[in-house]
Amino acid sequence: MASKFQSRLVGTIILVAIGVIFLPDLFDGKKQHYQEQFASIPLQPETTDEIEYETIPAPEFAEVDLPPEPVTVVVDEPQQETAAVEVTAEAIEAANQPLKVEPQPVTEPKLDNQDSAWVVQLGVFRNFDNANQLVERLRKAGYQAHVFPKQPQQGDLARVVVGPDVSKQKLSGDIKKLEELTGLKGRLVRFNPLNP
């Protein structure tokens, strides 16, 4: 007879085999296979041959002979009475001729813009906040005031100017008003737009 160990080993193998075969069916219940469903796209739509295509006729050109005598054309305008226009064959031929244009000489642009405008320099400040406060006060009074340089670097000085203006006389007259408003003596300086 077989030993106890062999009997137990055979029994264990049989139980494992039964478990492998029947347990998935017990836990799965109904076997359902899930499959993605999508609508199929037809390869080519069906067309009917009943469409009729129209052909476009070629344009027709006609020879036009102009009359030798002047032609009178009457134009109706609602605001005015009728106006008559005479069109002659010479006028039509002159209108068909190419227009000759004389080229104008090209003038070189002024490279030295020193003479273009003037400004009134009111002061040079080490503190940019003071300069900006003065500019705000001048702008509220109606003057076109600026601080240069616009983007200060460490150690730069702020210049407060009023202008620019092409009229030197206008700015000269404003110097006294600016002195009364700010308490600073301004001086008239040329404005260079390339290096304000």
How is this fold's topology laid out?
Blueprint: H1 4-28, E1 71-75, E2 83-87, H2 89-96, E3 117-125, H3 128-140, E4 145-148, E5 158-165, H4 168-182, E6 187-191
Antiparallel strand pairs: 1-2, 3-5, 3-6, 4-5
Task: Please supply descriptive tags for the structure shown above.
196 residues; alpha+beta; Alpha-Beta Plaits; four-stranded antiparallel sheet; two-stranded antiparallel ribbon; 4 helices; 18% strand; transmembrane; membrane; SPOR-like_dom; transmembrane helix; Cell division protein DedD
Q: Can you offer a commentary on this structure?
A:
The chain crosses the membrane at residues 6-27. Pfam families: SPOR. It comes from Photobacterium rosenbergii. Keywords: Cell cycle, Cell division, Membrane, Transmembrane, Transmembrane helix. The protein is 31% helix and 18% strand. It starts with a helix and ends in a 5-residue tail after the last strand. The model has no long low-confidence stretch (mean pLDDT 78). The protein has helices spanning 4-28, 89-96, 128-140, 168-182, and strands at residues 71-75, 83-87, 117-125, 145-148, 158-165, 187-191. The longest helix has 25 residues, at 4-28. The chain has a domain at 117-191: Sporulation related repeat (Alpha-Beta Plaits, 2-Layer Sandwich), CATH 3.30.70. It is flat. A 4-stranded antiparallel sheet has the order 4-5-3-6, covered by helices on one side. The protein has a two-stranded antiparallel sheet with strand order 1-2. By secondary structure, it is α+β, with helices and mostly antiparallel strands.
